[in-house]
Structures are given as structure tokens and as C-alpha cells.
Design goal:
Radius of gyration: 28 Å
InterPro entries: Metallo-B-lactamas, RibonucZ/Hydroxyglut_hydro, RMMBL, RNase_J, RNase_J_2, RNase_J_b_CASP, RNase_J_bac, RNase_J_C
Keywords: Cytoplasm, Endonuclease, Exonuclease, Hydrolase, Metal-binding, Nuclease, RNA-binding, rRNA processing, Zinc
Oligomer: single chain
GO molecular function, one term: hydrolase activity
Strand order of the largest sheet: 8-7-6-4-3-2-21-22
Family: Belongs to the metallo-beta-lactamase superfamily. RNA-metabolizing metallo-beta-lactamase-like family. Bacterial RNase J subfamily.
Function: An RNase that has 5'-3' exonuclease and possibly endonuclease activity. Involved in maturation of rRNA and in some organisms also mRNA maturation and/or decay.
Bound molecules: zinc ion
Largest sheet: 8 strands, mixed
Number of strands: 27
Distance between the termini: 67 Å
Length: about 550
């Protein structure tokens, strides 16, 4: 395995006959997937997703890939190809289209329908190109072919990119469910043909590369899901991703069989299910789905609720139910069915939510205590089959944290891919493929770009550091009344607290430290208000860190006495 070194310089000019590959997201993290391909001066973008924030990024809505390296090249982009409709693959598209709205967006029917709904909210009218599994499309010098893949959302596509520099397969997210609910298999025969043709580079989903064996089939969940609907005396409250059409179909079928009416709760869930139903991906028996308000008039054992969070992900809604701030209030006898992965980052937070829901009287059924969820990603066994069928010359594991990428790289090596041809990279690392050989050649800008309300990229790592400090130690404002034009205090300092607590001794120490600092300032003839504010804030912060081991955000305000 060849791992990208830490400090890479900027890449050289792209090779004229080669293919340049630059992942801008999804490598080193699960989310904000985006890869840029460059050939003959033109660019092709595959996926453009968002990453959801962690607890250490308070107040952030979503995190985008860094588009800096594309800013001067927007007119060279031939197309954005979307492999499937998950937020971590399409959520960033509105932000890229804001920079150039007429970039054609290529994808399957459901993927583009989910994207269109999102773009309408952003007031963007996209140029859409519908493609199907088995279909082809030419985007400038990139000849594209699309291959059906099975995943936790219908209509997923892997994309073959043919240029004069060789043949590349990007799998997108996939697994190899042999008994999928919709009968749409990952097209291994197409993989086989590609292997025969000769595959120069494989970019392959790493999410489950550490998990041995095979991901079980969706159909194996049916008995456990049915069991929930048979035995629950109250409502069944299902928490799912707003895009998991097949899991929701299972829930609709089980509800119908038990005479339960179903209501969708959450804007993205209502919207996506309307789209999936209109396009025929979801089959809903007449009269089964009703408005949430109407479920209040039914006996609890005749009701199923299917809920999601505001971003389409399940945990946010569940957290609000657990804290009793959600419109759905848990009652004794309800079952909460957690039809999603348990651990998108924070295990203890999720178990906290499960405990609170249990305290409120719910029976919580989840992946940890029943077979009610299965991953959408290929496990190690499936990946090995793919390597052996595709026989790629070069491999670049994508979609995963560093440990997933390495595990995937190790699988590639075991199947005989030469160790120098397995590239473990990071977001922003640039790989050039020339004469069938892929090599790391440099690195471009790659920051986490934070979306916070209406702002994009305004929140920095420093802002987040302040927010973490505020949550841990609050804010302390220091008012300093100075004699006009001097650094001399006219009155003792005044302290205003919000969420910060200090003993009088600590504050007295801080005041004495400020007296000294201002005496120094007087000697140095420092009288500018902003400089004095900086001196006072730093002095107070240091003093409190020493005396009370607390580090609040300190704001000093200098006023003329
Ligand atoms: Zn996905």
C-alpha cells in the first residue's frame, strides 16, 4: 500500500495524455463524497455531498467539500455525475451550482428527483441529464457508462469513465444483496465484462471493508420487523433515513398486514416518500397513509409513524422525542423501531437517547437487539469478489475513515493488486494516472467548509474553538473605564458573566494582573482602545486559567470614564 505523505506540495501541471484524480471529500471521513477527474483540460465531478457535523462542531448545519481548487476552473466542468441520492453524495450540489448553475447534472431517475426537490428549495433550476443502468453518456472527453449497483437507496449507479488515458470504475456506495427487495442486483456481469476489457483504476467503497464476510440481505429483516408489528400494544414509531425507500416499503407492508395506518412525520420524509411513490419506487395500498393529525383519533395499536430529522437523518428526530421537544410524544406501550445504523459517530449519545426513550415507556428495538437493520455497504467478502472479478491495475479506496481505507487496501493486495498500485490518499491529494500507472503527485486546498444558517465558509476552526469554550466555560465580559487618552483605570474593573462562574479571589487576582499590565502599557505609551482591550482580555484569560483552571471566552470593553 502506498500512503500519501503528510506534507505534499502543489501538484505540477496536469499530464496532457493522462488522467488526474482529485478527491475533495469522502476520504478520511464518512460523508461529503466528491471526486474530480481531469483529462484534456476538462473536468468531471463525481458526487458532491455533505458531511454531518459532530458534537465538537456546535451550530453547524452541514459541512461541504472545499471547492477552492475548482474556482478558476468552473467553466471546464463538463458534468456532475451522481451515483445515488444520499445526502452525503448530493447534498453539496446546490452550493456548487450556485457558483455555476448550468453545469449538467447526470444521474438516475430517483437520484435526480431527490436532487430537484432540494434545488427547488435553493431556487436553482438545474440542467438535468437522466441516465439508466446499462446506459452511456458522453461528457466532453469523458465517455461514461453506468452500471446498476444495490445500496440502501434505490437506483444506485456505478460509473465507468473511459478516456484516452484508460478505463476507470467508481463504484459509488454499493453492496451485493443477492435477494434485494426490488430485484435490482449489483450488475456483476457488467463488472466481469469490465474485467475482461481491462480496468486501469478502481475507486471503491470502503465503509464496511473491516467487516468480515457478507452483508446480509434486506429480505432477512422481514421476520424481525413483522414481529415488532405483531407484538406492539401501542404505536410503532419507526425512525429511518428519509431516503431508505426499501426499508419504508417493508414497514408499509407490515403495517398494512396488521391493519395499522401509517403517517410520515418530518418534512424531508413526507417530500421523499411523495417523490418515491409518484415515480413508482414505493407501492402504497390505497388509504394506508394518512396525515399525522388524523392518527390521534385512532387506537394506538392501529398506528405506525415513520419519522426522520430535519436533514433527513434519523437521530435528530429521536433525540427530540427523547427530550420531549418533538411533536410525537412517546407513551407507554409504544415501540420505537430504529431502522438505521446505530453509530454515526457518537455511541454514548445514542445509548443515552435509547435510555431516555425507554424511561418514557417505549420498547426500543434496534440493530443491537434485533435483526431490524442491515448496512448498505459491501463487507470484506463482497469486496474481495469485486477485486477478483474486476482485476484492476490500480486501486484507490474511497468513502471511509483512514482505518476503512487501509482495510480495503489490504483486501486489494491480498487479491494480487501490486502494493505500489494501491493508493491510500486523503481529501485534496492529487493522483495522476499516466500509461496505466497511478501515482500521488501533490495536494490542493482541502478545508472543512462549514454551512451555518445562511453563511457558507464564514465559520472557521477558530469560531468553533470559541463555541466549544463557550459551552464548557461560558463568557466573561470585562468593562474597563479608563481616563481618556490613557491606559489608567478610573474605576475598578467590572465583570459581567454568562455561563461562567469564578470565585471572588480569582477575579481579584485577575484585576491585580490587569493593573500590572496597564502599568506596562502606560510605560510603553500604549493608549489605543483596541490594543488595550486585547491586553486586558488576554491578561484576564491567563489569570483565570492559572487561578481557577477555567478558560471562558473573555471579552474586554474599554470605555472613557
Ligand atoms: Zn449511500
Amino acid at each position: 500500500m502506498h500512503t500519501a505523505p503528510r506534507d505534499l506540495s502543489r501538484p505540477p501541471v496536469a499530464p496532457s495524455q493522462g488522467l488526474r484524480i482529485t478527491p475533495l471529500g469522502g476520504i478520511g471521513e464518512i460523508g461529503r463524497n466528491m471526486t474530480v477527474f481531469e483529462h484534456a483540460g476538462k473536468l468531471l465531478v463525481v458526487d458532491c455531498g455533505v458531511l454531518f457535523p459532530e458534537d465538537t462542531q456546535p451550530g453547524i448545519d452541514v459541512i461541504l467539500p472545499d471547492f477552492t481548487s475548482l474556482e478558476s476552473r468552473l467553466d471546464d466542468i463538463e458534468a456532475i455525475v451522481l451515483t445515488h441520492g444520499h445526502e452525503d453524495h448530493i447534498g453539496g450540489v446546490p452550493y456548487l451550482l450556485k457558483q455555476r448553475p448550468d453545469i449538467p447534472v447526470v444521474g438516475s431517475q430517483l437520484t435526480l428527483a431527490f436532487l430537484s426537490a432540494k434545488l427547488t428549495e435553493h431556487n436553482i433550476k438545474p440542467v438535468l441529464v437522466h441516465v439508466e443502468a446499462g446506459g452511456r453518456h458522453a461528457a466532453g472527453p469523458f465517455a461514461l457508462e453506468f452500471i446498476a449497483v444495490n445500496h440502501s437507496i434505490p437506483d444506485g449507479l456505478a460509473v465507468v469513465i473511459r478516456t484516452a488515458a484508460g478505463v476507470v470504475l467508481h463504484t459509488g456506495d454499493f453492496r451485493m444483496d443477492q435477494f434485494p427487495l426490488d430485484g435490482r442486483l449489483t450488475d456483476l456481469r457488467a463488472f466481469g465484462r469490465l474485467g475482461e476489457e481491462g480496468l486501469d483504476l478502481l475507486l471503491v467503497d470502503s465503509t464496511n471493508a473491516e467487516i468480515p464476510g457478507f452483508t446480509i440481505s434486506e429480505t432477512e429483516l422481514t421476520p424481525a420487523i413483522d414481529q415488532v408489528f405483531t407484538t406492539t400494544p401501542g404505536r410503532v414509531i419507526v425512525s429511518s433515513f428519509a431516503s431508505h425507500v426499501h426499508r419504508i416499503q417493508q414497514v408499509l407492508d407490515a403495517s398494512d398486514a396488521r391493519g395499522r395506518k401509517v403517517a410520515f412525520v418530518g418534512r424531508s420524509m413526507v417530500r421523499n416518500m411523495r417523490i418515491a411513490r409518484e415515480l413508482g419506487y414505493l407501492t402504497v395500498p390505497r388509504g394506508l397513509v394518512i396525515d399525522y393529525a388524523k392518527t390521534r383519533n385512532l387506537p394506538p395499536n392501529k398506528v405506525t409513524l415513520i419519522c426522520t430529522g430535519s436533514q433527513g437523518e434519523p437521530m435528530a428526530a429521536l433525540a427530540r422525542m427523547a427530550n420531549e421537544t418533538h411533536e410525537v410524544r412517546i407513551s407507554d406501550g409504544d415501540t420505537v423501531l430504529l431502522a438505521s445504523s446505530l453509530i454515526p459517530g457518537n455511541e454514548s449519545a445514542i445509548y443515552g437517547i435509547i435510555n431516555k426513550l425507554t424511561d418514557l415507556g417505549a420498547n426500543v428495538v434496534h440493530k443491537g437487539n434485533a435483526r431490524v437493520h442491515v448496512s448498505g455497504h459491501a463487507s470484506a467478502g463482497e469486496l474481495v469478489y469485486c477485486y477478483n472479478i474486476l482485476r484492476p491495475r490500480n486501486v484507490m479506496p474511497v468513502h471511509g475513515e483512514p482505518k476503512h481505507l487501509r482495510a480495503n487496501g489490504a483486501l486489494a493486495e491480498r487479491t494480487g493488486v501490486p502494493t505500489d498500485n494501491v493508493l491510500i490518499v486523503r481529501d485534496g491529494v492529487v493522483v495522476d494516472m499516466v500509461d496505466g500507472v497511478a501515482r500521488i503527485v501533490g495536494q490542493v486546498e482541502n478545508d472543512l467548509v462549514y454551512v451555518d444558517g445562511q453563511t457558507v465558509g464564514h465559520v472557521t476552526e477558530d469560531t468553533l474553538a470559541d463555541r466549544r469554550k463557550l459551552s464548557a466555560a461560558g463568557v466573561l465580559t470585562v468593562l474597563a473605564f479608563l481616563r481618556s487618552g490613557t491606559a489608567e483605570l478610573a474605576e475598578p474593573l467590572e465583570y459581567l458573566h454568562r455561563g461562567s462562574v469564578h470565585g471572588q479571589d480569582s477575579l481579584d487576582n485577575a484585576s491585580r494582573a490587569v493593573d500590572k499590565a496597564l502599568a506596562d502599557a502606560t510605560r510603553n505609551k500604549t493608549t489605543a482602545g483596541d490594543q488595550l482591550e486585547e491586553i486586558i482580555a488576554t491578561t484576564v484569560a491567563r489569570s483565570l486559567a492559572r487561578s481557577s483552571r477555567r478558560e471562558p471566552v473573555v471579552i474586554a470593553v474599554v470605555l472613557d470614564a
